[in-house]
TrEMBL record:
EC numbers on record: 3.5.2.6
Catalytic activity: a beta-lactam + H2O = a substituted beta-amino acid
UniProt name for this protein: beta-lactamase
Superkingdom field: Bacteria
Amino acid sequence: MSRLIKIVLIGIVALSFTACENNQTTSKKEVKYIASLPMPEWDKEAKSRIDNYWSQWNDAKTDPSAATKIGYAYSEELKDYDKAIKWYKYSNSMKPTGTNSNYMCYAYQMKKDYETAIKWCKNAIDLGNKEVYTNLGDMYFNMKKYDKSIAVYEEGYKKTKNTDLLTNIAYIYDEKKKNYKTAEEWYKKASTKGNMKAYQGLSYLYFSKLDKKIKSSAYAIALIENKYSKNSVIKILKERNFSNETIKKGYELQLNSDEFPIKYKGKLDLDE
């Protein structure tokens, strides 16, 4: 199962500063950066596929965020990681940023150059980027370095409070370490904060590993109208050969227990 999570480009804006010209007036001046690397050539063959990034071309001469956007286009729209890296390095030569380093880490990861990718991920952390914890943890997972992956996810959760990182830890204990009780603990840490992936994980864990059918039903039923339709959830529970009585008990459990911040309060409409 691939744990790589696609990085989403958000919030990259041109930097500016306000300078006082005198005691009475102020004006906004554009910051221009000077690159220490030559600007990559524009790929005319790729232009038709990333034409919306052409507007960044002139800005990229003095603006690292514009250069990063072009690199992102090569990475995510063309899957041309070599050219993406050229643009990221060019951007970095103007001004190193955590976002740029995180994207660089991802591009090297796609090239399976994990040693270089790790260096850029750690550089992103040093520059204050928080999204990188998911990226770095996923990479260690794909390298089968599960303890390192867990440590990164834990650190990332402390910094970001992203509960998906808790479910990632639970998944490793569940599927890779076969430590089901510890997996349960981590899923519950996420579920008590309303993480719906954790509800899915617990429902399947209780069904497939811990043989707790009522709890499995409860965590699945709690997702009705919160993530899935009633018909789809009931179908899954029936495919697990759960009786109507078990499903009803699961319904009552999720409805009345503080263990479930997410609940389904509607009717089940089970076939009797």
